[in-house]
Batch of 2 targets.
Target 1
Amino acid sequence: MVKPELRQNKITNNWTLYAPHRSTRPMDHKKKKNKQKYKLPKYEKECPFCPGNEKMLPSVISEIRNKNSWFTRIVSNKYPVLLPEEKQKKFNDVTFPCMLTSGNQEVIVEHPMHNKNISSFSTCEFENLLKTYRKRFDELIRIKSNKFVFVFRNHGEGAGASRIHPHSQIVSLGFVPAYIQYRENNSKKFFHKHGRSIYKTLLEREKKEKKRMLFENDAFLAFVPYAAEVKCELWILPKKQRANFGKITNKEIILLAKILKKTLERLHEKLKNPDYNLVLYSASKHNIKASYLCWHIQIRPKLSRPAGFEIVSGMNVNPSLPEIDAKFLRNH
Ligand SMILES: [Zn+2]
């Protein structure tokens, strides 16, 4: 098997991760040619995430049990982007820098039912899912070689989902990606210049202006951010500032489950089950206690594709104003 490796482009300084071993992974969506006419079954005999098909999985890491079945389950990824046993190694070639590093990618199966859409999950099902995120996040960030852990879910083929069965993924990396370092350094600079966290400042400003807000409860705010990069982008930001998602309390999980359910239901209804990426940002291990950082959720619907302008300029082109998107999403 060809090992995954990172290579740096010396013109942009951007790193690209090469994972050639993933090219053989199966894609559910490609099999279903007549997607519109095809009605998804509750159970699919070829799906490794359906109950009873465990022999198709490399291993089950843990699960939240439900009498004779389970609510959520963490399983190893058959096609991880990085490999856990790899030793960190850097090759400082002036023109062609390269790095080998460790990492792991696991799948969180969100529900036993193959055809369950997350937008129809109950609050209790969202709570179980968020508790699964917290538990595994906390375990992985404590492992010495892991420097950064994140959670994401790709919804729909256009957002990169290879399997239809509802699932999220949790990734641990033996390095902190340059983009994360850049984000964290920007937040640190803001804190030193203004004496307060950018996240707290954003939250107060969005609350005050109201025009981009979608939902609010005692612990969270859901809104279209002022500088949304894509149409109908949404953020869920906690009111209690905390860099480490692993420290979210049970009470906060109940309120996060409620606001996430409302947000995903609304997105499903208004944009007719759009493809989207949901990402959960938490601080890198080095900054896990930083008072200038705050974990949060970002949801990016895939309503258009980056093209020539974006490639050359490095800027996102959003065809819609965040205030208009928020008004559209609020209208129920
Ligand atoms: Zn399935």
Target 2
Amino acid sequence: MNKIGLFFGPIGGSTNRVGKLIAEKIGNEFVDLIPVKEATTETLSKYDNIIFGISTLGRETWDGEHTKNDWDVFMPSLEEFDFSDKKVAIYGLGDSVTYAQFFVDHMGILAQKLLNAKATLIGKVSPEGYSFEDSKALIDGAFIGLPIDEDFEDYLTEERVSAWVEQIKPELL
Ligand SMILES: Cc1cc2nc3c(=O)[nH]c(=O)nc-3n(C[C@H](O)[C@H](O)[C@H](O)COP(=O)(O)O)c2cc1C
């Protein structure tokens, strides 16, 4: 059986922690957890089934110069990559209260790049049960992946992850 490649960034925060939880729920033996900081397109090509984990850190909120984060460095390489034989699921960390108008925007930006690169995206999630104002991750009325808010709704993370894993596991394994 082919393993799932779970690529996440940054290291050491909520995206990392939720990545570990997803791997645990799928079964750690089926998942390789790989920080995007250590990944190249060569690493990606080893996997037919991929999960991407990304947080949204809106640039408009930064003071001064923006330093490139792990995803800023990795994302451009995806545009050159052919995802046509890959199944991809995305989860995104965000804050639905402080950034209600930009909730998990970067999950949407990543999804758009993957769709342009011909990926098959799985794991869409209904916006029901989330409160927010707007999100680039909403495509045709559904979230293009799993939004997680560890800042204000951490008590919902476990059940959200469990339901999502039930949904994607049969498609990825
Ligand atoms: C400077 C800054 C900007 C942020 N901008 C957004 C945003 O635009 N949209 C959003 O949903 N969350 C935003 N967040 C919330 C983070 O995405 C959230 O805290 C997330 O859990 C961080 O994950 P990480 O620890 O893996 O980086 C922002 C957080 C910070 C500190």
